[in-house]
Design goal:
With 266 residues, the protein is an alpha/beta fold. It contains 10 helices and 8 strands.
């Protein structure tokens, strides 16, 4: 693991491989370790960087009032510090929303977008009553007496996590910081990036689990209709975390897409 300092924050990352840069942005209540199958599977032809966003993993705690723009600015600083831009930028779930915000603020750092089972913010992708229910549910969970962290929240997998990943998921769950999750949920509830989608001017890969119950396939179709240059890959038998549940299929899709769209020199 390496790290950089950004505005008083430590931002940790893993960097492996050689070739065009691919930056991986994990979801909420996770850290960069959830990309293990991608860092090992794609490093043969890509420089793969998986960050621990502020408030997760080896990175600093979130300052009070940290915003979606703050995440994007920290990510931009990482790309610049490692001289990676323009890069393929991939995000799953909440990480895809961060990727879109990076594009909105610093499009010159983004060669392509790879959006996996994601949202244009919860406000921008889900019915208002569903957003309210999610916010209420997370805050109720965070207010409950401390208990052994669950390795998998309901609805993340189509049929359950691959057994070989359960030790990793337990470790990741144990490292979740309640203050981070509370801030992220409130950010997602306020965020609507749908107006940005028609203005995305880079090739965009959409990877979606057919059985995603958190961000249903209908959300992917709305992304595909709005973003001018999209490729949609539907992963059969996968739920919300398709990059974990069907890693080889997702890796193949990412690899083929990156080969077809090599980044221009920065």
């Amino acid at each position: 693991m390496g790290h950089i300092e950004v505005g008083g924050l430590r931002v940790a990352y893993e960097r492996v491989g050689q070739g065009p840069p691919l930056v991986l942005l994990h979801g909420a209540a996770e850290d960069g370790r959830v990309w293990r199958q991608q860092t090992t599977g794609l490093a043969g032809e890509l420089t793969v960087v998986a960050w621990d966003e502020p408030g997760a993993g080896g990175s600093s705690d979130l300052p009070e009032g940290f915003s979606l723009a703050g995440y994007a600015d920290a990510l931009a600083a990482l790309l610049e510090a490692l001289d990676l831009g323009p890069a393929h930028v991939a995000g799953v779930s909440w990480g895809g929303t961060v990727a879109l915000e990076l594009y909105r603020r610093r499009a010159e750092l983004v060669a392509t977008l790879i959006l996996i089972d994601t949202y244009a913010g919860w406000k921008g992708s889900l019915p208002a009553d569903e957003v309210r229910a999610r916010v209420t549910g997370v805050h109720r969970m965070l207010a409950a007496p401390a208990a052994e962290p669950a390795p998998v929240l309901p609805g993340l997998f189509a049929v359950g996590p691959p057994p070989e990943l359960i030790p990793l998921l337990v470790d990741v769950a144990a490292g979740v910081r309640p203050a981070t999750l509370a801030q992220q949920v409130d950010i997602m509830a306020r965020t609507d990036l749908t107006a940005l989608l028609p203005h995305v001017a880079v090739p965009t890969l959409l990877v979606w689990g057919r059985l995603d119950a958190r961000s249903p396939l209908a959300v992917a179709h709305r992304f595909a209709a709005a973003i001018p240059d999209t490729t949609l890959v539907v992963v059969e038998g996968a739920g919300h975390l398709s990059h974990l549940e069907r890693a080889e299929q997702v890796n193949d899709a990412i690899r083929d897409f990156c080969r077809a769209h090599p980044p221009a020199a920065g």
